[in-house]
Design goal:
The model has no long low-confidence stretch (mean pLDDT 97). The longest helix has 29 residues. By secondary structure, this protein is α/β, with parallel strands linked by helices. Strands 3-2-1-4-5-6-7 form a 7-stranded parallel sheet, with helices on both faces. It is 47% helix and 14% strand. It has 2 domains: 205 residues, Rossmann fold; 37 residues, no CATH class. Strand 2, helix 2 and strand 3 form a beta-alpha-beta unit. It is built from 8 helices and 7 strands, in the order βαβαβαβαβαβαααβ. It is an enzyme of class 1 (oxidoreductase). GO terms for molecular function: 3-hydroxybutyrate dehydrogenase activity. Keywords: Oxidoreductase.
């Protein structure tokens, strides 16, 4: 499916999963809006690079996803939103009794509340256009849990629940809302952790990946940002017009356990 003429907003998209999804959407013909909380020359350069590579209109708009008014302003500044990919997220690992309150508040705000604000602002634009797709990048942790990740697991479960509610509210319109639930994804951030983990456990790269990082991922392979982008594109096709209010796991079998 060509997404030519569609505008896609991807939150948290100047690196990692968000950037990978944005690139794939642009390759499919969509105009894309990149986003993060910084406003650096390199942020705008990323958008210019995507525009040059794909021949689409790519822009970068700064907005802090921890602040509801900036989340809504992102949609307003974009001016159009046919495809909304709620991807922004942060993580903190700690036992619950030691979990810093400010970290809890930030994770809930960025990982979950931001999707509420952006979706609320985007739906009127989708209704006006007569078509829309909301794709929430949740996590395997939106369907299952791990210890010491209380805020992240709570937020991602919340995103899955929000996905269902929005889908029901738009069920009789040409608008769908779904969540993609990745397992471990090979991003530059994950890649950078591998050498230190090799030293810590005195293991080879292969053993660290299979036995430490991908311990819970039965395939023993990372998902890729390109695969997540492809899944997002599929949800924008006519083939997925009756897929709404559900989750698609891209986790190498993690949630099958």
């Amino acid at each position: 499916m060509s997404l030519s003429g569609k505008t896609a907003i991807i939150t948290g998209s100047n690196s990692g999963i968000g950037l990978g999804v944005a690139r794939e959407l642009a390759k499919a013909g969509a105009d894309v809006v990149l986003n993060s909380f910084t406003d650096r020359d390199e942020d705008h350069a990323l958008a210019a690079e995507i525009a040059k590579e794909t021949g689409t209109n790519a822009r970068y708009i700064k907005a802090d996803m921890s602040k509801g008014d900036e989340c809504r302003a992102l949609i307003e500044k974009a001016g159009a939103c046919d495809i909304l990919v709620n991807n922004a997220g942060i993580q903190h690992v700690s036992p619950i009794e030691q979990f810093p309150v400010d970290k809890w508040d930030a994770i809930i705000a960025i990982n979950m509340s931001s999707a509420f604000h952006t979706t609320a602002a985007a739906l009127p634009l989708m209704r006006e256009a007569g078509w829309g797709r909301v794709v929430n990048i949740a996590s395997a942790h939106g369907l299952t849990a791990s210890p010491f990740k209380t805020a992240y697991v709570a937020a991602k479960h919340g995103v899955v629940g929000m996905t269902k509610s929005v889908a029901l509210e738009t069920a009789q319109e040409p608008i769908t809302c779904n969540a993609i639930c990745p397992g471990y994804v090979l991003t530059p951030l994950v890649e950078a952790q591998i050498p230190d983990t090799m030293k810590e456990y005195n293991m080879s790269r292969e053993d660290v990946v299979k036995n430490i990082l991908l311990e819970r991922q039965p395939s023993k392979e990372f998902a890729t940002v390109e695969q997540l982008g492809g899944t997002t594109i599929f949800l924008c096709t006519d083939a997925a017009a009756q897929i709404t209010g559900t989750t698609i796991s891209v986790d190498g079998g993690w949630t099958a356990l």
